[in-house]
Amino acid sequence: MSLDIKQIMEIIPHRYPMLLVDRVEEVEPGKRVVGYKNVTINEHFFQGHYPGNPVMPGVLIIEALAQLGGTAMLSMDGYKGKTPLFAGIKSAKFRKPVVPGDVLKLEVEIVKIKGPAIVGKGIATVDGKKAAEGELLFMVV
Asked: Cβ of 80: how many Cβ atoms within 10 Å?
């Protein structure tokens, strides 16, 4: 199953300028999700984040992974219509700068679900090279 931007906005509550997922290529509710963020020079954060040498903030790459993970969670029966909160990150690593023109491929695998607590492993790549990764903790309220 794939999702366009309208379908994504029906699932997760984020909106511009904080919506950081443009397309979902595949989603297995509660298991795995793959999506994309098209990074352009028009992003609001590039105005102040290294002007003249724009680099996407690492925290926003992690946020994009968290939003994508939210689509996998909120696609599950019992979680639809709820609010996913980002509760923590473990072992975050940033490997490669993400710059305008990059297509950020985002992948999140849900590794544990215990009631409202969900743990996912996220990886962000550009052209097959790892840009960021981390273990994400969500609470669904």
From this structure: 12
